[in-house]
Write a structure and sequence with these properties.
The protein has 246 residues and is of the alpha/beta class. It contains 8 helices and 12 strands. The structure holds fe (ii) ion (FE2).
Length: 246
Amino acid sequence: MRYLIFSDIHGNLEALNALLKFAQKRRVDHFVFLGDLVGYGASPNETIQKVQALKPLAMIRGNHDKAVLGRDSIETFNPIAAAAIYWTRKEIARKNLEALSHLRRGPQIVHSSFMICHGAPFDEDYYIFGEFDAAEAFDYLEVPLGFFGHTHFPFVYTRRDGAVEGTFLEGNANEIKLEKGVTYLINPGSVGQPRDRNPRTAFAIYDSEARTVKFHRLEYDIEQSQKKILSHKLPAALAERLSHGI
Ligand SMILES: [Fe+2]
């Protein structure tokens, strides 16, 4: 099976469109989404509709999805993130709000073979930002492979003979081969809000037969995303950061 694993679209329709165009030309058996459909970007409705149309095999909620629903406090959100949540609450169509409300809480096990969560397997809102965090997360992993989002950094953590090691996947084309006896926690990066100083949209394809995970980075129409953000009078910093991947 080839699973397209994607996360953190954050209402960025142009970035999502680049991913969809790519997926049309490749064999993808299933789409698996790790949370944060909305927040930051100016196309929450179109993003939800397009992702739903893919009929993902599994889809879980992110903290921004919960915040738009009013199920999570936005006290921890910085002012520009909070502004985007307030705007999204006003813009979002009822049916799309309902779609958000049906997103499940992570972690989930997919096809009895891999785990997905938004933040960490022990707390959906926790950020895995280093080997110490990853070591704790591995203790909660029930299967040898897990995918997570939330940090917006493409990253691979391995646990080999009890030793945890993290690797940042720099550049635009990376592939890893999954080894037997090694446990993995993998972040595919963010579709719509990359934060690793690479503005390209990020996602990964897990091939369960070949035992590989390939990380992709694609250019997309950043200018159009920015124009929409500015035309809706969302904070200009939300548009600016897309050019830099920060
Ligand atoms: Fe996010």
